[in-house]
Write a structure and sequence with these properties.
The structure holds two protein chains of two kinds. By secondary structure, chain A is α+β, with helices and mostly antiparallel strands. Chain A contains eleven helices and ten strands. In chain B, helix 1 packs across helix 4 and helix 4 crosses helix 8. In chain B, strands 1-4-5-8 form a four-stranded mixed beta sheet. In chain B, strands 2-3-7-6 form a four-stranded antiparallel beta sheet, with no helix packed on it. The chains are: A alpha+beta, B alpha+beta.
């Protein structure tokens, strides 16, 4: 088995990384976060042509798949860039037709109407009347405050789900929620008689795919945050002196850093394997996705604690950037479902006795 | 609140440590390797009068409480004798509790003085292959035959049965299917392990090899009525009385084993030089040992509280279970870390920590698993629904 990024993927990683370093350095990101301005970065991402990467050419994107999206997620997290619209759109796009999809990654951000703290598709469904008007509330929708259009899961005939597209206009109200991680946003979306049009996709198939993609991309986000916290912790442990030596000389510190490195490398291998597996659509791909969501995001939360310990009190301050990645990793653990819920999915997929 | 040991307790502790120290690690390594009962060690403790520490004075003992018994077994274990030493006498120390409380005067006079002076070895025959910890599901059956009973069935994990003359045997006298309360219909006997009717087969196992663990095949074992402990059908209740003390004593043994392991680890950490300095200077080794010290000390406090509660006639289920849980964990972790500290040498028998490690692992399983302790705490203490 040969496992590495293709030349193209590697080139993408390099150039997108360089772009992020230029456009979203820490002081700029902090300004966006302080101002609650998620739009500035989202616009820049669209304007400079990155939003279509990982979107099939058939939908008007630049091609590539989940591996490219995972690279994007990892790098966005490593910069703590405001990325709720990017992720929400990446998850919603496969439900959209070519024209709508193009609009979605050209700034008309789309979002699935499903709670950001639940496994996609497990949230409440909307009700629909004979004229396609929708009714219902979906709490904590990722980018719910920023999306221009929503993919709604509607109760169809016989209880089967159907997908409808709802523009964020008349009859749609979004109440923003404050998150501890300011680099993502969520809102309760209240729909009162909004008009909608049916989407011509198999809802169950879309939701299953969306679930797997959400798992991989949140795990990739966690990986990016983890890797950045490792860099910061190592740098700090060389710079900070106590008892006449850099604290990195103490085994308790260096072993903790080495443990983070193990988590990061394990996460990287698993995330990109899962991304390729989901793209390949193999029979085990849903389990691979669930495994990385459960394992990597849990590791990310642990790493955040460990990195904070390595920084001592300075890491606890507002001035230090560690807080950005700490919160990012902590949200990733819960974003689109806690590890316990994903482990439950894995357990369901194994040949075990029912509990 | 007083954390000081009484004068008697301090004396017991010191005297036990001195006596146990006469049997060094070499002795235990050889006994373990040869699968040989530590007769000399057992005799030294019998001659010193230690086996009757909790036996009432009128039956040849000293009438001390569970606190003193725990100190004794902890020191035995901590000497490096570990579970081999502790198990050689464990049942004599407190196992006869149901007999002391519920047995007939005759049964007590016949047996207790002989147990206290070491002449009579006893084992505890409760667990069965088909029942595990679900004790009321045992099927070994004692059928009435005139004034006697005739027993048939199987027992498993019976420690020291090979070396024992008698067994404290739990049976059913009414079948599970025929009782209204599942805890009814169990009857306890203290009777002879007649080799003509009991086939005893030692189980090949991971450690604690100086004291056997056995499977018993009981075939028409005739037991006179006089060997019955208390009333017919009440055996489960009698056994229940002894469970908390049992957990505390096992906790004490686990704690002692942890102390023994930690002592060896610290010695090696100071002596062994790598990269031109003692390996104990590495935080990667020093911190786990310091952590184990803290955990052993904390577990010890819980154990002392549990035995104090019991000796003062107060409820102690929560504390006895907690002590078993924490001591078993702290003891095992200490043994594991001691082994790690020794590196490759830890894997050889020569440094003894491998033996401690094997024995410490047992205490996370016996006499009940850590998970069953959590079941107890979860349902009986926290009031959550019973999960099993």
């Amino acid at each position: 088995m040969r496992w590495q990024l293709s030349e193209e993927q590697d080139a993408y990683r390099q150039s997108f990384g360089a772009w992020l370093a230029d456009v979203a350095p820490s002081e700029v990101v902090r300004r966006w976060l302080d101002d609650g301005d998620a739009a500035a970065f989202a616009e820049r991402l669209v304007r400079d042509g990155w939003a279509g990467v990982g979107v099939p050419e058939a939908l008007g994107g630049q091609g590539g798949g989940l591996v490219e999206l995972a690279l994007t997620a990892e790098l966005l997290a490593g910069a703590s860039a405001p990325s709720a619209t990017w992720l929400a759109t990446a998850l919603a796009v496969p439900a959209l037709g070519p024209g709508t999809a193009v609009a979605a990654f050209e700034g008309e951000h789309a979002a699935l109407l499903s709670p950001a703290d639940a496994i996609p598709g497990e949230g409440p469904r909307l009700t629909i009347d004979g004229e396609g008007r929708l009714q219902g509330t979906v709490p904590r929708v990722l980018a719910g405050d920023l999306a221009a259009q929503f993919v709604a899961v509607v109760d169809g005939p016989g209880g089967s789900p159907q997908l409808h597209l709802v523009p964020a206009s008349t009859g749609v109200r979004a109440q923003a929620r404050r998150l501890l991680d300011r680099s993502r946003s969520a809102a309760d979306v209240v729909i009162e008689g909004a008009t909608s049009g049916p989407l011509d996709v198999d809802a169950r198939q879309f939701l299953a795919g969306c679930t797997a993609r959400a798992a991989v991309l949140v795990a990739a986000d966690s990986l990016g945050a983890m890797a950045r916290m490792l860099d910061m912790a190592v740098e700090y442990s060389k710079q900070r002196h106590q008892f006449g030596v850099p604290i990195g000389a103490f085994q308790a510190v260096k072993h903790a850093a080495a443990t983070i490195l193990v988590e990061v490398e394990a996460a990287r291998s698993a995330v990109y394997f899962a991304a390729a597996s989901v793209d390949g659509g193999g029979p085990q791909s849903a389990l691979h996705a669930a495994a990385v969501k459960a394992q990597v995001t849990a590791a990310g939360a642990r790493v955040a604690d460990s990195a904070l310990t390595l920084h001592g009190a300075i890491g606890y301050t507002w001035e230090h950037d560690l807080q950005l990645f700490f919160k990012r990793a902590k949200l990733d653990e819960y974003l689109y479902g806690r590890p316990a819920g994903w482990n439950e999915r894995i357990a369901d997929g194994l040949d075990l006795a029912p509990s | 609140m007083d954390f000081e040991l009484s004068e008697d307790q301090a004396t017991i502790r010191r005297a036990v440590a001195e006596l146990a120290a006469k049997f060094d690690d070499q002795y235990w390594m050889e006994k373990d390797a040869a699968h040989e009962f530590p007769t000399e060690f057992y005799k030294a403790f019998a001659d010193g009068g230690w086996l009757g520490i909790t036996t009432p004075e009128q039956y040849g003992g000293h009438g001390f409480g569970i606190t003193e018994a725990a100190l004794l077994l902890e020191e035995v274990s901590a000497s490096g004798a570990g579970m081999n030493g502790a198990s050689s006498m464990h049942l004599s120390i407190f196992g006869m509790h149901p007999v002391i409380v519920h047995g007939s005067e005759e049964l007590k006079r016949q047996n207790l003085p002989r147990i206290a002076d070491g002449d009579l070895h006893v084992c505890f025959g409760v667990t069965e292959p088909g029942a595990g910890l679900d004790t009321t599901r045992i099927t070994t059956f004692a059928r009435r035959d005139g004034s006697d009973y005739v027993v048939n069935g199987r027992k498993v994990w019976i420690s020291k049965a090979m070396e024992s003359e008698k067994v404290l045997l739990l049976t059913r006298t009414t079948r599970f299917e025929d009782v209204q309360k599942k805890t009814d219909g169990l009857t306890l006997f203290l009777t002879d392990l007649d080799r003509d009717h009991v086939d005893i087969r030692p189980i090949t196992k991971m450690g604690r090899n100086a004291v056997s663990s056995n499977e018993l095949f009981i075939d028409d074992l005739r037991v006179p009525e006089a060997h019955r402990v208390g009333e017919e059908g009440q055996g489960f209740r009698y056994i229940l009385d002894g469970l908390n003390p049992e957990r505390m004593l096992v906790a004490a043994e686990a704690l002692g084993l942890g102390r023994a392991a930690l002592r060896r680890a610290v010695r090696y950490g100071n002596e062994r030089q790598v990269f031109g300095r003692p390996i104990g200077m590495n935080q990667g080794l020093q911190f786990p040992l310091a952590d184990s010290l803290a955990r052993l000390d904390a577990a010890e406090l819980t154990l002392r509280k549990a035995t104090w509660l019991y000796d003062n006639g107060k409820p102690c289920g929560r504390e006895a279970n907690t002590a078993k849980y924490l001591c078993a964990d702290a003891g095992f972790d200490a043994a594991d870390r001691a082994l790690q500290t020794h590196g490759g040498m830890g894997y050889s028998e020569e440094y003894h920590v491998a033996r401690y490690f094997r024995e410490a692992r047992l205490l996370k399983i016996a006499p009940l698993s850590q998970e069953m302790v959590l079941n107890y705490l979860g349902s009986h203490v926290l009031g959550l629904p019973r999960s099993y």
